[in-house]
Write the structure tokens for this entry.
Amino acid sequence: MSADGDRTLHGSRGLTAAVVVASNRAAAGVYADETGPLIVAWLTERGFRVADAVVVPDGDPVAEAIRTAADGGARLVLTTGGTGLTPTDRTPEATLGLLDFEVPGIAEAIRAYGVDQGVPSAVLSRGVAGVRGTCLVVNLPGSRGGVKDGLAVLDPIVVHAVEQVVGSDHDRGDS
């Protein structure tokens, strides 16, 4: 759901996703967020039903948005922003408090991919990934480049991972 309450859904697959943008400045209207729409478009292209991105200040509002989406039936929540080292970057902490268990390989792969793309500062992202109930939650960096790198890592695994969370034997296509 967007900050203005728009609940328009896109896509047709039975999987529902949500996007949470952690940005104090975008939430305050200082500038328009560009990462949320990028993620929504990516999810839609892969057949997920997804509402427009929710833009919230970092910290507790991120936790509330993730909780609302996951407990409301989303099978995937992707966050963007709030994963760095500044004092206001609190997305990993907000996320960890909600998870039943972590999936550290996803976050590690996102950082490694960024470094492989020539972005040494990718190692500074503290993003985490894990599961809450039947929902996979993944923190992506807040930059457009970081989001694109994270989505490149998720592309071949995300549907399989989401299906695995509920015990499905989803075909990975590697037969």
